[in-house]
Amino acid sequence: MTTAPPIIETRGLTKRFGNRTAVSDLNLTVPVGCAFGFLGHNGAGKTTVIRMLVSLTKPSAGTIRIAGRSLAEHREQALAQVGAIIEEPRFHSHLTGRENLRVIAAARGPAAQPRIEPALERAGLRDRGDDLVGTYSQGMRQRLGIARCLLADPKLVILDEPMNGLDPSGILELRALIAGLAAEGRTVFVSSHLLDEIEKTCHAAAVIDRGRLIAQGLDRRADQRPAPPLRPGLREPSRRAQHPDRAPGRGPGK
Question: What mean pLDDT, rounded, does the chain reach?
Fold first, then answer.
């Protein structure tokens, strides 16, 4: 039986901005079909990694493979399987949620159009699809962002700090949506600086600190091979992640 390649695999991934190294020699492996947490304090390099994963920033060194395809050599095919929300989803506030998705679907091509209603349903927005996005709460905009991702029917959904600014009910709704997407066989890659949120949302995780991968763990739900739960080594760096003001090497970006 052939084993599916990791949905994300990086080797020696590095990004430099002038004399500053934001990401250094990152070897990350994300399995297929799980909610995967990417944990680190603000300034640890999370968003820089995500921007490289979706080809918004070019690596200084190293390689990225998405579902077995080299991002450098097969960019279009690799990214066709990816939906991403980086930092905060943005929409036309004077249009309804459904109208916003129609605009995106028109740009994506004919295959995206019939996915609009299922995406709204999946995101729990079917009954609010005709409301102006300007009236949406932050949680509803996050869910509309995920609905937008689903127009591509992605194998990989990347969410950059999706819980930021949400009230408790919005957090619960988003947790349930992430769990549902993973249950469908999609991989949801969730970045966060909150250990508690990663523990409640994800069943595999990696920790980044000052641009370096310092821990990575899988449990049996994320990988069919025997593997321990998240290792105790995750605990200490994650405490720093919850308190960015105490973390050394804090930079201006994520």
Answer: 86
DSSP string, 126-147: GGGTTSBGGG--HHHHHHHHHH
Give the whole-angstrom CA distance, residue 45 versus residue 15: 9
Which residues constitute the domain of residue 59?
Answer: 1-81+156-254
Q: What are phi and psi of 133, to 5 degrees?
A: -60, -25
Same domain, 125 and 183: no
The Cα 26–Cα 33 span in angstroms is 22
CATH number at residue 166: 3.40.50.300
Shared domain for 33 and 109, answered yes or no, is no
Whether the model pTM is above 0.85? no
Alpha carbons 227 and 243: distance in angstroms, whole number = 29
Question: Do residues 178 and 220 share a domain?
Answer: yes
Q: Rounded to whole angstroms, how far apart are CA atoms 45 and 96?
A: 34
Q: Cα–chain-centroid distance for residue 68?
A: 18
Q: Is the pLDDT of residue 83 over 50?
A: yes
Query: Long-range pairs for 108-114 at CB < 8 Å and ≥24 separation?
Result: 108/151, 108/152, 111/153, 112/151, 112/152
Tell me what pLDDT residue 217 has: 84
From 1-10, 25-34, 158-167, 241-250, the region with the lowest mean pLDDT: 241-250
Looking at the 3D structure of the chain, how many domains does it have?
2
- The string of pLDDT tens digits covering residues 13-43 is 999 999 999 999 999 999 999 999 999 999 9
Q: Which of 154, 195, 162 is nearest to 54 (CA)?
A: 154
Query: Does residue 235 register a pLDDT over 70?
Result: no
Residue 190: which of 78, 49, 3, 13 has the closest Cα?
Answer: 49
Do residues 69 and 190 share a domain? Answer: yes
Asked if residue 244 and residue 202 are part of one domain, the reply reads yes
